């Protein structure tokens, strides 16, 4: 393979054990066949050891390899023989069994930790070790971290990176607590011979098939001529698990592990006789940022949503089985993203199954006017959804939503209509009309009660608002049911790694140095609700990369696709990146007048309820002032903050557009905004009441404005003293 000075292999097979250790039937034939494939099909220089494979000879062979290998070589190590796992201080201690070992003398075994040290001392750039033996998975105790999932497409730039960066990987034929089959029971009974009259272990048989081309599983169903170690593992895992269970009623699960010297490379085989088919990597622009910053992941971003696979399956099963599910968690735990980018795509795939159609409505945000928002969502349903209730029906008929669901179900027997209410706490933080708040809850509860076989309601809610909505409301009885509450679990180390590396992998991006990923994880793993801050930091790292790329191009230079530690430090880390970016936007405004405007705009977007701080969705009309110069400043400030992804603009809601902070994290973590809020604490509730009164005045029209004018309200002097 181009890119390496030499391709070498050490292939070991032991059948004829001594000192009472049971003999094996296939290890030598497996080793000899693999040596043949590597030499003839892949051009390896193979060192085959199948006779007199003593512990001393193994050690001497690996010592010699240190002198023979160069830093730009690659090495494949294969071992077929006995392996055992014994109790150790930190878990199962794995051992390979040399041919001259004594069963009662642990010192005659080869500890996998010692073999690990021999391998780590080798100077090769790429190394792949394959162990086909019992308890081979115990080698994981000598490794360091999990590997990133294989990408759906291998682009040319990724392939080049795979070759250039260190790849130190281990494939094991069985888990640390599993035995590896030497031969399938059916083969032995039938006398089945494979590969020129010789019998092979099920793991070795699958390995040979993979190297013949079957292991080229990416892209799915097509292949590209490249078999990475990860693809090889995926093929071996699927084949061996099925064969062992079907023919021998035996559990055997191959594994894939990295060594400490592994970086961003992948051990690679090029399928003999296959022309490479590697498309170029996607162009990187601001529009295809793989990270959402403070915004949640929507259904359209499902391919960039990582780290919640188990939760998605669990939640999908709950929703399919019951009419009401509340997805709960603190702010910043990823509730909305889990539902919109995880659950909805999963149920969307289920909609194509013959068991019954799913009509998935667009997620509903309650906002300040939840009934018009619900009417708009129902109006977006397909024509087969029945007669859509108008706003008056929603306000006066408690069964309007249930009737709508029933009409749809009549035309779709066996189907399900799913409504997601995202951020249900907005019924408290934004909706000031108490009657409208309870009307919405009554409509939802009636649909759940009357159409339990057809209606599926999923709500996301911050846990600090649960008591206010789970008690003394129409949904209280459903909330109390077993399994109705799904609390989003915190992400563990591997989940966070997937959150960081998964989107980067989709866009063919890397972290330089790789330990930057560990630094990011370390900074957030003990910080509750830090996911938005992590995503914002990653988004800012991507933007920094684009800026470096643009500068390099102007200088006629190239920049690799790396997110760097230097940029991370410049941002102030995870906890400092949001605060620093918001402060930077504020300080870069042209003058004090614009900065005062930004203060007024941001204070409009803070909701305070029961001492809790949350973001507030602000109708665009609320930011229109009598002074045209102020309006121009508002437009400029909003444009800057939206471009910085600190604010988001929304489409029409109750007839007009809106703007809001991208996440609660902005209003809860930006120290300058919190200081402004503290100064305005006395006046914020007054401003909200005045805003609601003004909206009611506008809706009422000329004939029904009696009692709405604040001409004699005792709070009027306060209003006159405040400049917003």
Short description:
This protein has 27 helices and 23 strands.
Assign a percent range to the helix content: 40-55%
Q: Alpha-carbon distance between the termini?
A: 69 Å
Low-pLDDT residue spans: 188-192, 351-355
Number of helices: 27
C-alpha Rg, in Å? 31 Å
Major sheet: arrangement of strands: 2-1-3-7-8-10
- Residue fraction in strands: 15-25%
Biggest sheet descriptor: 6 strands, mixed
Secondary structure: number of strands:
23
Shape by Cα distribution: elongated
Helical/strand content category: alpha/beta
Average pLDDT for all residues: 87
Give an overview of the whole structure.
- With 724 residues, the protein is α/β, with parallel strands linked by helices.
- It has 27 helices and 23 strands.
- It has a six-stranded mixed sheet with strand order 2-1-3-7-8-10, covered by helices on one side. The protein has a five-stranded parallel sheet with strand order 13-14-15-12-16, sandwiched between helices. The chain has a three-stranded antiparallel sheet with strand order 4-5-6.
- Helix 17 crosses helix 18, helix 19 crosses helix 21 and helix 20 packs across helix 21 (573-587).
- The radius of gyration is 31 Å and the shape is elongated.
- The N and C termini lie far apart (69 Å).
- The relative contact order is 0.07.
- The model is unreliable at 188-192 and 351-355 (pLDDT under 50).
């Amino acid at each position: 393979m181009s890119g390496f000075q030499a391709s070498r292999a050490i292939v070991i097979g032991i059948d004829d054990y001594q000192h009472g250790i049971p003999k094996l039937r296939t290890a030598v034939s497996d080793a000899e066949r693999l040596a043949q494939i590597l030499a003839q099909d892949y051009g390896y220089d193979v060192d085959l050891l199948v006779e007199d494979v003593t512990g001393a000879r193994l050690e001497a062979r690996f010592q010699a390899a240190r002198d023979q290998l160069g830093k730009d070589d690659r090495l494949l190590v294969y071992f077929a023989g006995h392996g055992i796992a014994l109790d150790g201080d930190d878990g199962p201690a794995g051992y390979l069994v040399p041919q001259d070992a004594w069963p009662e003398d642990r010192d005659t075994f080869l500890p996998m930790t010692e073999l690990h040290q021999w391998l780590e001392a080798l100077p090769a750039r790429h190394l792949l070790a394959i162990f086909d033996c019992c308890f081979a998975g115990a080698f994981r105790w000598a490794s360091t971290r999990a590997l990133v999932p294989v990408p759906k497409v291998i682009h040319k730039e990724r392939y080049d990176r795979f070759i250039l960066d260190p790849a130190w990987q281990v494939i094991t034929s069985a888990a640390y607590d599993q035995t590896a089959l030497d031969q399938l029971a059916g083969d032995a009974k039938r006398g089945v011979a494979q590969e020129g009259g010789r019998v092979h272990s099920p793991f070795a048989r699958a390995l040979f098939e993979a190297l013949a081309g079957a292991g080229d599983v990416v892209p799915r169903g097509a292949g590209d001529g490249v078999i990475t170690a990860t693809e090889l593992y995926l093929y071996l895992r699927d084949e061996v698990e099925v064969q062992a269970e079907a023919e021998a009623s035996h559990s055997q699960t191959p594994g894939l592990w990295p060594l400490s010297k592994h970086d961003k490379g992948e051990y690679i085989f090029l399928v003999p006789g296959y022309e490479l088919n590697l498309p170029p990597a996607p162009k990187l622009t601001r529009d295809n940022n793989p990270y959402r910053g403070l915004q949640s992941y929507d259904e359209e971003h499902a391919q960039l949503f990582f780290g919640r696979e188990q939760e998605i399956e669990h939640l999908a099963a709950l929703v399919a089985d019951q009419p009401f599910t509340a997805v709960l968690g603190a702010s910043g735990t990823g509730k909305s993203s889990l539902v919109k980018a995880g659950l909805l795509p999963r149920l969307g795939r289920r909609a194509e199954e013959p068991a019954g159609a799913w009509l998935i409505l667009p997620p509903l945000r309650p906002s300040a006017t939840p009934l018009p928002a619900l009417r708009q969502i129902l109006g977006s349903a397909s024509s087969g959804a029945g007669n859509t209730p108008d706003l008056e029906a929603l306000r006066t008929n408690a069964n309007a939503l249930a009737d709508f669901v029933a009409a749809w179900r009549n035309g779709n027997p066996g189907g399900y209509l799913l409504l997601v209410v995202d951020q249900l706490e907005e019924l408290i933080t934004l909706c000031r009309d108490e009657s409208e708040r309870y009307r919405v809850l009554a409509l939802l509860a009636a649909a759940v009660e009357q159409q339990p076989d057809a209606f599926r309601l999923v709500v996301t809610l911050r846990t600090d608002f649960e008591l206010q909505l789970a008690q003394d409301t129409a949904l209280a009885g459903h909330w109390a049911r077993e399994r109705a509450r799904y609390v989003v679990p915190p992400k563990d180390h591997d989940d966070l790694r997937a959150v960081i590396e998964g989107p980067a992998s989709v866009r063919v991006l890397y972290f330089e140095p790789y330990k930057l990923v560990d630094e990011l994880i370390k900074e957030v793993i003990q910080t509750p609700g830090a996911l938005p801050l992590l995503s914002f930091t990653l988004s800012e790292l991507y933007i920094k990369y684009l800026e470096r790329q643009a500068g390099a191009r102007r200088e006629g230079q190239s920049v690799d696709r790396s997110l760097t530690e230097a940029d991370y430090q410049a941002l102030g880390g995870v906890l400092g990146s949001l605060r620093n970016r918001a402060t930077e936007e504020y300080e870069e405004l042209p003058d004090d007048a614009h900065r005062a405007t930004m203060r007024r705009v941001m204070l409009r977007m803070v909701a305070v309820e029961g001492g809790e701080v949350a973001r507030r969705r602000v109708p665009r009309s609320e930011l229109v002032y009598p002074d045209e110069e102020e309006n121009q400043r508002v437009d400029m400030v909003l444009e800057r903050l939206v471009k910085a992804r600190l604010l988001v603009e929304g489409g029409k809601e109750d007839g007009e557009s809106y703007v809001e902070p991208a996440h609660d994290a902005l209003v809860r973590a930006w120290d300058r905004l919190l200081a402004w809020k503290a100064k305005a604490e006395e006046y914020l509730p007054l401003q909200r009441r005045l805003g609601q009164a003004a909206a009611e005045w506008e809706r009422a029209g000329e004939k029904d404005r009696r009692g709405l004018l604040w001409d004699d309200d005792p709070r009027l002097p306060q209003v006159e003293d405040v400049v917003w």
